């Protein structure tokens, strides 16, 4: 299927590795010019070089997307874009009684206020031009809380509420906003969560992964590549009637009916 995206331009945040990179690669494969972002310049430049092989233009902006300065730097380099994919690192795991105001502010900045700031900056141009796509990478925890990820549960649910309302205000201009909810995917983030289990339970990384895979109906972790392809479809010309949705990619891991 031709996704109809050739020649469009996308800003993909937090995209030197993992799910963000998967989204950037899938868009590049469709002929989308890219603005990529991450904090670490070395991995970011390596990813940018890799994706230029698709024959698209790739601009790399090293910045912390959770800060106002980082957002300003990225937005200035990006200019006018047709597609925005928001993403940032996830908050650390922990226990409810250990989290104070500063922990919540950090989580809100990263996983709620940064995507909102980027949408606030870019939605007006998309609406004026009559076409746009926003995909926010959130988490399975929006549908079913992960107890040790309370900071993530809180911030991402806030973003989800914002998207539910805002997506219905911009749809008439040909602009869609949707969220992609990853369950466990084989990225550095998953390895870091598994290493927490290794440290706590004295098992190997392979055992930690096998235990977690056993809880997923698909019996495996997802891949950044398949996640990226779902993102590219949501960004495509065929997805204009998909508005304000929360698409779970979790191998069936979240146990509920609708
Ligand atoms: P990852 O493999 O650790 O990759 C994170 C990417 O984001 C890297 O490119 C990283 O580069 C960049 N990044 C992190 N913090 C950033 C910041 N403040 N500003 C700019 N770039 C930043 O993580 P992932 O697995 O792709 O996860 C992406 C998101 O999905 C996270 O929010 C994660 O919590 C969520 N999620 C993941 C899973 C999973 O199983 N993988 C499940 C549910 C939710 P730098 O470090 O160089 O900045």
Compact summary:
This protein has helices at residues 18-29, 41-52, 68-78, 101-129, 150-170, 188-201, 205-214, 224-235; strands at residues 9-12, 33-38, 58-62, 83-86, 132-137, 175-182, 246-249. Helix 1 (18-29) packs across helix 8 and helix 6 (188-201) packs across helix 7. The protein contains eight helices and seven strands; from the N terminus they run E-H-E-H-E-H-E-H-E-H-E-H-H-H-E.
What are the main properties of this structure?
258 residues, alpha/beta, 8 helices, 7 strands, binds NADP nicotinamide-adenine-dinucleotide phosphate
How would you describe this structure to a colleague?
The protein is α/β, with parallel strands linked by helices and 258 residues long. It contains 8 helices and 7 strands, in the order βαβαβαβαβαβαααβ. A 7-stranded parallel beta sheet has the order 3-2-1-4-5-6-7, sandwiched between helices. Strand 1, helix 1 (18-29) and strand 2 form a beta-alpha-beta unit. Helix 1 (18-29) packs across helix 8 (224-235), helix 4 packs parallel to helix 5 and helix 6 crosses helix 7 (205-214). The radius of gyration is 18 Å and the shape is globular. NADP nicotinamide-adenine-dinucleotide phosphate binds next to helix 1, strand 2 and helix 6.
């Amino acid at each position: 299927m031709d996704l109809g995206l050739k020649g469009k331009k996308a800003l993909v945040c937090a995209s030197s590795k993992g799910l963000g990179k998967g989204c950037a690669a899938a868009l590049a494969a469709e002929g989308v010019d890219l603005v990529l972002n991450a904090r670490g310049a070395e991995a970011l430049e390596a990813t940018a070089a890799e994706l230029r092989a698709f024959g698209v233009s790739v601009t790399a902006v090293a910045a912390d997307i959770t800060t106002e300065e980082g957002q300003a730097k990225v937005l200035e380099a990006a200019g006018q874009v047709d597609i925005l994919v928001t993403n940032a690192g996830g908050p650390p795991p922990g226990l409810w009684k250990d989290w104070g105001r500063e922990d919540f502010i950090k989580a809100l900045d990263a996983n709620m206020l940064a995507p909102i700031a980027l949408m606030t900056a870019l939605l007006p141009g998309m609406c004026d031009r009559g076409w746009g796509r926003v995909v926010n990478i959130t988490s399975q925890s929006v549908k079913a809380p992960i107890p040790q990820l309370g900071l993530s549960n809180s911030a991402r649910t806030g973003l989800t509420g914002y998207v539910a309302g805002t997506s219905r205000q911009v749809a008439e201009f040909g602009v869609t906003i949707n969220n992609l909810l990853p369950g466990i995917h084989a990225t550095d983030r998953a390895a870091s969560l598994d290493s927490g289990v290794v440290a706590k339970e004295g098992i190997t990384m392979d055992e930690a992964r096998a235990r977690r895979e056993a809880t997923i109906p698909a019996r495996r972790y997802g891949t950044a590549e398949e996640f990226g392809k779902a993102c590219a479809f949501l960004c495509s010309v065929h997805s204009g009637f998909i508005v304000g949705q929360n698409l779970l990619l979790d191998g069936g891991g979240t146990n509920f009916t609708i």
